[in-house]
Amino acid sequence: MSDKTTTPSEAATSAWIHIMRARDRLLAAIETEFKTAKMPPLSWYDVLWELARAKGGRLRPYEIEERTLLAQYNLSRLVDRLEREGLVRRETFDEDARGRWVVITDAGLQLRERMWAVYARSIETHIGCKLAENEANTITALLARFL
Known about the structure:
HTH_MarR-typ, single chain, mainly alpha, WH-like_DNA-bd_sf
């Protein structure tokens, strides 16, 4: 067994740095735009979006975790907060009384729509107007390799 460490190429290192910097800057810009519009943070949108597009508007907590970038402990607190705000509700899972569904409410659907208006503008401002269609498709294809 060799102790030799593999060193990434300069191009791979540069790509990593650019991906991370772009991600951080884009997320910060979007969060700022949500805050300016007096909207909740992007994590709220992510959960509401996944629930809105799920069959019946409901998912198990682990399914939300799989579909978002939220760790379980953060997700639990966020779902508690969304429930207190009336944006989601919990329902007992019929097949397993211990399990729970997280279900989006009408208020949650309405908030997601309002947030989308801000988010869509942000995507266009920070991505859409800076890339030609073929460039956006190329970036999508390249990044899809990591997913």
